[in-house]
Every structure is written in structure tokens, then in C-alpha cells.
Known about the structure:
The complex is a heterodimer of chains A (399) and B (383).
Chain A lengths: L19 H18 L3 H7 L4 H9 L18 H14 L1 H21 L2 H12 L5 E4 L15 E5 L2 E12 L6 E7 L8 E7 L5 E6 L10 E12 L3 E2 L5 H37 L1 E2 L2 E2 L4 H29 L7 H24 L10 H11 L6 H14 L8
Parallel strand pairs in A: 1-4
Antiparallel strand pairs in A: 2-3, 3-7, 4-5, 5-8, 6-7, 9-10
Helix pairs in contact in A: 1-4, 4-5, 4-7, 5-6, 5-7, 7-8, 7-9, 7-10, 8-9, 9-10, 9-11
Chain B lengths: L6 H18 L3 H7 L4 H10 L16 H13 L3 H21 L2 H12 L5 E4 L15 E4 L3 E12 L6 E7 L9 E7 L5 E3 L13 E12 L10 H37 L1 E2 L2 E2 L4 H29 L5 H26 L10 H9 L8 H17 L1
Parallel strand pairs in B: 1-4
Antiparallel strand pairs in B: 2-3, 3-7, 4-5, 6-7, 8-9
Helix pairs in contact in B: 1-4, 4-5, 4-7, 4-8, 5-6, 5-7, 7-8, 7-9, 7-10, 8-9, 9-10, 9-11
Amino acid sequence: xxxxxxxxxxxxxxxxxxxxxxxxxxxxxxxxxxxxxxxxxxxxxxxxxxxxxxxxxxxxxxxxxxxxxxxxxxxxxxxxxxxxxxxxxxxxxxxxxxxxxxxxxxxxxxxxxxxxxxxxxxxxxxxxxxxxxxxxxxxxxxxxxxxxxxxxxxxxxxxxxxxxxxxxxxxxxxxxxxxxxxxxxxxxxxxxxxxxxxxxxxxxxxxxxxxxxxxxxxxxxxxxxxxxxxxxxxxxxxxxxxxxxxxxxxxxxxxxxxxxxxxxxxxxxxxxxxxxxxxxxxxxxxxxxxxxxxxxxxxxxxxxxxxxxxxxxxxxxxxxxxxxxxxxxxxxxxxxxxxxxxxxxxxxxxxxxxxxxxxxxxxxxxxxxxxxxxxxxxxxxxxxxxxxxxxxxxxxxxx
Amino acid sequence: xxxxxxxxxxxxxxxxxxxxxxxxxxxxxxxxxxxxxxxxxxxxxxxxxxxxxxxxxxxxxxxxxxxxxxxxxxxxxxxxxxxxxxxxxxxxxxxxxxxxxxxxxxxxxxxxxxxxxxxxxxxxxxxxxxxxxxxxxxxxxxxxxxxxxxxxxxxxxxxxxxxxxxxxxxxxxxxxxxxxxxxxxxxxxxxxxxxxxxxxxxxxxxxxxxxxxxxxxxxxxxxxxxxxxxxxxxxxxxxxxxxxxxxxxxxxxxxxxxxxxxxxxxxxxxxxxxxxxxxxxxxxxxxxxxxxxxxxxxxxxxxxxxxxxxxxxxxxxxxxxxxxxxxxxxxxxxxxxxxxxxxxxxxxxxxxxxxxxxxxxxxxxxxxxxxxxxxxxxxxxxx
Lengths: 399, 383
């Protein structure tokens, strides 16, 4: 059977080896990222500039709606494909990675799951073609992880929802054409929210303050102000009162996107470090010949491999429709902390150059930090993992 | 891409897990104190197929490759690292070396007996003066009238006290270099094969670790295992696989620590609530769980690269490095969660932690793994 293993060549039966379709996808998005995304990344970070032209091209190539089924004009690919795109984009520029991830994971995915047929027919084609940019709006000044405490509210008046309130930290918010908005529609702290699809040009919606951020400075993060903003009743996504469930489901899926973003940042940090450690000479030797540097490279590479295994397993489970409360949480918390670790090591390997903006690796650390915070902080992920373990201790031995 | 075990492997896991819970778990503490595994348990592991899980069916094995080995070793290590180490050395090193390098007659003679535990195997590479730097070994083999004459000292030989057959590496060319060493099969009772007294170790105490001295030990010519001067190259191939096995051993030890901790954190109350209701403890459990999952994925994937005929050596090193260091962190946290109870031998976590320290050292220390991983990364990106 496996006696002549050395002569046999087959797909690796367990693990994250990619099939041909995903390899082709990876190679093409990698090339795009190298040629188009990477060149202006430092400048966009310094200026806080949105990569409008890149996002337009991503849309034209079908990457802004990669998981949208073909019947709605999308590429009809799976969760793994989406993760690969986010990873490769983030390796060049994590801001571009999150712009893509928000659209696919936080807006398109919940519309596919919870939206009506009419909504899908109307909204998905322009999203899939990149004509529309999407944003997801849940957080408020007083409600982050504790989303049920939201204050922004909508009242049903005739055929419309009248929205009043303020939302914060809306990624893609300044440029978006479509917002998946979560508003309080009922009293109480459970089942109190609903999801609405809101077009940018709806009267009563204004974009407020632009945040000046530590990292992912190429993506916009804004305040949204709603003043008697009237949204058609037909834009209610899912059932009234089911908004929190929709939001949490979206974030559950989004964790894999952010984990893939972290993986891209970590890989950028490792690959830049290795290249630099070969070129840079001290004491007559390349840096990579010193064990002190080899240690860092080995630890970065190992944690990246472990992160990838978790992320891909999460995607695999998602594609099979197997709900797993803990694997996406593990993928996100582990990949996010790996990204920060690798970026910090990269700065150390680059030394003074790493502390300067033109060295680029300092951006990786600033970008990495957000992956530990948004779409469920590392603390929330750990609570999720612990809860699933306490509820089902037998799963440890059945993995 | 897949993250599933086959039905065959799931059945083997079930069987091994049941065996371990029934035949190993109740006695592991005693074996640790007595510094010896009963022969009977090893024979039983042979009978139920645990020792032959990775050998081809033609030799009486289950044909489950290295992936099968990792599944079995994890189940056993969950209760007792020493028993798992016995399997790792017997199946993962001795049997694997004969399977990889031996000729048909050696394979036909030894593998069915090793697969069923009728004979116990040991593997002799390390010496008093060379561990990580194994290529510097000084045991030598010289042609004699009757075959080969072996002289030298081997150290830290797992299973050495109970072994019936030893695979011994020895220098067949005086100078250093990769192709200057050969491997030989030496049977117990061969004049000149002197097995010493077991070491008194920190962990893995029930597994016997002995020095083996070869004093004009003469063996037949046909006991050369593999090509002349090819023994070191073959040994490295065995070690590449053995690393993955050690990774799975650490995963099993860490799993034991986590399972005990989850149980204790549910039962034990403090400040009016179960321990696990305190975030300080919940955060620990989540980290332990995450790291075990990550390590297990690396181990299984690395194993499968070997089974598919495309061994990924870097991944094998990563699996061992990450799993072994992970299990030590998990072990310390398990003791912390158990508090005073964890510091005593009434709870098995201190034993599992002691057992795991060996996994950071044996079959290529963490330091050696990091050098190998880094070198592979530089080669990959520097080309």
C-alpha cells in the first residue's frame, strides 16, 4: 500500500494543499497584487488615500464578488477562494485586503444567506461587478463587541423605515454605494435589531468624521449620521428583529477574511525579512547566517504555517456547510497574533531601516494591529473558543 | 484540500483510544514511579495492531502510513508519554529504518515480528559525544572474517533494555561526510553487545533509556541494513518521519493536559462560580485549545506529505518544533489551572509535562529544527 511511498505521487490527503483551480486563482491574484497593488502602498498609507483605481479593477476582474453565484453575475467560487484573494491582496497592501473582505464577507455573504430573492436580483449583480462598493455598519460609540447595546434606531412609518442615529468605524464608509446597516427596531437587549440595505444617495444619510488611524490607512473608516433617513420597507434584510443574528453570522464568516488578511501581512513580513537577511551583510556574513536571525525566521515561518492550516480548515468547513463555532475563532486569533508577531520581528531584522516608512515593514505592524481588534476582538474569540470547549469537552479528542 | 481522517483511521483511533483508557490510563502513574512498562501491555499493543499501524499489510501491518502513526501515538500519549515513546522508537525508528532501507529478506524476517510486537526494536544513533551532530559519530564497523566487527558506545537508546533487535549506525569510512556511515541489524544476545543500566530521567520514566556498548561485536555480513555507506542518509530519512511522530506525541500530551484542565475547571468552584466561569481561566483554556488544534493540523499534514511520496522536511520540522514547545506551554498552564492539586502526582498533568520536555530534545532539538526551518525558508525565497 504505502510501501513504495517514494514512488507514489498524489494529492496530499490531509491538509491545506491547493487544487489546480485555487492555484490558478492564487497565481493570478498574486501577480495583480505584485504589479498593481504593491507599488503605491507606501504612498497611500502616508496620505491615507483610498485605492479607487485598484478597487475598480478588482471589480472588473470579478474579485469584489468572488462568492456570488453565477446566476447573480458573480464568480461562484468558495470561501477558500475568497480567503486566497484577501491573503494575496493583503500581502501587498492590507488596506486593499480589508476593502475586499468587507464587501465579500460582511455584506454579500449575509445578503446571500438572509436576503430575499428580489434583493439578491437587484443588489448582487452591481456588487459582483464592482459597480457598487459595500460597507457594513454595526458599531457605535457605545457598542462594539456588545452590539446589542446599539442606540441608532429605525421606526416603521408607512412603507418606510425612518432611521435616526450615529454609527462609527464604518470601513469603506466614505466611498460605499451600499450599506448593510443594523438599527434598533425593538426594545430590549435581545432580538432588538434589524438589518437594512441603504443606498448612499438616500436623503438623510451623511458621512461624518473620517478617522485618522494607526494602520490600514488606505481604507476609509468613517462616522455615518442618519437624520430622518427614509429607507424603503422592501430593504429590510431578513426578518424584523433578527438583525443581531444576521450581524453575528456575518462577523462569524468575516473572521476567516480577517484571518486571511493577517496571514497576508505575516507572509509579507516574513518574505521581506528573508530577502533582506540574505542581502544585508554584517561582520562579513549575511544576516541569515546568524542563528539569532535564523531563530526569528523559523518562528515566523512556523506560526504562518500553523495559521494557514487553521484558516484553510475554517474555509473547508464553511464550504461543506459544517458550522464550527471554534475553528474560525481559532484561525482569527492565531493568525492575527501571528501577523503582529511577524511584523514586529521584521522591524527588528531590518533594524533602523525597519523603523522608517520607506522600509515598509513598520506599516505591517500598524496594519496587523487592527486584525486583533475588528470583526471580533481576540478577547471575544477566546471567549467563543472557551465556551465551545466547555459546552463540548469531548471534541478535543475527536478533531 | 481535506481535513478529514478516513473511516479506517477513525476506527483505529477509536480502538486505540479505548485501549489506552482501559489498559494504560489506570496504571501510568505507577509505571512512572516504577520506571518500567510491563511487557504484557506491549504484547497487547502488538496484538491489537497498534505497533504495526504504519507498516504495509504485506508485513502484517495496517498500512496506514505515517498519518496512522500520528493518530495512534496521540491517543496513547494522551495518557502516558512513556508508552507512546516506546511505540515511537519501536515502530517509528527501528521498524521504519528496516522498512525504508532493508532488503526483502530482512523485511520479511523482521517486519511481521515487529508489527505484532513479537520482538521489540531499538534504534541506535546517538553517542556520548554526539547528539544533534550525529554525523560525527565514532562507533565503527570493520570487515571481519565472519562479517562485520562493531566497536563503540551508543547512548540514550530508547527500549534498549527490552529490545530484541537493534538498528545500529556505525562508521564504515574513517573520514567525516554524509556517505561514510552504514546501518546494521544487531540481535540481542550477540556476543559483544552490552546493554547498560537505564538512565534516571525527569520524564518518560517508564520508558527505558540505556547506554549500549559494542565491544568487538561480530555480526554476519548480511546484517548490513541498506547500502554500504548509506546508513546516515537513511537515518536522516527515518528522523524526518520520526520528527512528525514526536510532534503527535506532544499533541497527545497537550491534549491530556487540556482534557484534565477542562474537567477540573468545571468541577472546581472559586468565589461562588466554576473555575471556567472566570475569564482568566477561560482565556487559558482557549489558548491551549487553539494551539493544540494548530499543532495537530501541522502534524497530520506533515505526515501526509511523507505518505504521498513528497516528504516536506520543513513542515516536518515545523510540526515537531511547534507541537513540542506548545505542549510545554500547555502543560505549565494545566498545572496553573489545577493549582496545588496540579503540583502533586494525584493529577497526571505534572507527569505529562515532564514527559513532554523530552519532545523538545529528542529526534532533533528545537534548536536544530529552527536552523533547518530557517535554512529551507532562505533557500525557497533566495532562489
